Automatic annotation (TrEMBL):
Residues 26-56 are annotated as: Disordered. Residues 1-23 form the signal peptide. Keywords: Signal. This is Lipoprotein.
């Protein structure tokens, strides 16, 4: 994550960095375990379930952006994720009021709901710039995904400004709705500014749901170099297209 002084024109990069970890998680979030197969008596065969399954890790991979989906100059940062629980807890927001929890969850982990069935994250950077474009793809049950989008939309509407803490310091968070193209079964755009002392962190977010699959594209822009708006807009449109295709036939 990039930060820059709010009251100083020249950008300064703080100690925060992109998390270097395995970007592919084929498991599930808290509360999710591997399913148990149906049992059958000798001589009988279990009938395959006709109920669609949530987005699988393989299908989630199909929903990921490629560097060629972004404007020229952007490249994939290998093995980078945005989930702060994986090594950057000092950058996590805490102690916000309850109604803003969906926003805090997204800001801290990159995804709208912790209990995922599949999850992949990736980050793109542009040489010489502070800005980075990241993407999360998560698979849920349809009910989970619909609820996650609804609660996130409510939080965006109710939490235009709230306070939290970051590494023990007061953080003031400002949220504004952002117009994004309609996509998938549901879509939502918003901007976030986190101010800690004189340092600000600025983001554009676009979240799209197709069936039980959700993708979020995040533009974390800095004071130096590309604002990232063109890459964000193009990336979000392509991510929505890929998600819709990958989620076809899933729960």
């Amino acid at each position: 994550m990039h930060v820059h002084p709010r009251r100083i024109a020249v950008a300064a990069l703080a100690a925060s960095t992109l998390l270097l970890a395995t970007a592919c998680d084929s498991g599930s979030g808290s509360g999710s375990g591997s399913g148990t197969g149906a049992t059958s008596s000798p001589g009988s065969k279990a009938k395959p379930s006709s109920t669609p399954a949530p987005l699988t890790p393989a299908r989630a991979k199909d929903a990921l952006l490629a560097a060629t989906d972004l404007p020229t100059g952007w490249k994939l940062e290998e093995n980078a994720v945005i989930d702060k629980t994986m090594g950057a807890v000092d950058e996590m927001l805490d102690k916000a009021r309850a109604q803003c929890t969906p926003l805090v969850t997204l800001l801290n982990t990159g995804r709208p709901e912790a209990d995922y069935k599949s999850n992949l994250q990736q980050v793109f950077v542009k040489q010489g710039d502070e800005t980075n474009i990241s993407q999360d793809v998560s698979g849920y049950t349809r009910e989970q995904a619909e609820k996650a989008m609804a609660t996130l939309r409510t939080a965006v509407g109710n939490c235009s400004s709230f306070t939290a803490t970051m590494n023990g310091k007061k953080a003031t968070v400002t949220v504004k709705k952002l117009d994004v193209a309609k996509a998938g079964d549901d879509s939502l755009g918003f901007t976030v500014t986190i101010l800690v002392g004189e340092y600000a962190m600025d983001f554009d977010f676009g979240t799209v749901r197709s069936r039980g699959a959700v993708t979020t594209v995040r533009n974390n822009w800095g004071a130096h170099g590309d604002r990232g708006k063109a890459a964000f807009t193009k990336g979000l449109a392509k991510a929505a297209e890929k998600l819709t295709a990958a989620a076809a036939g899933t729960a």
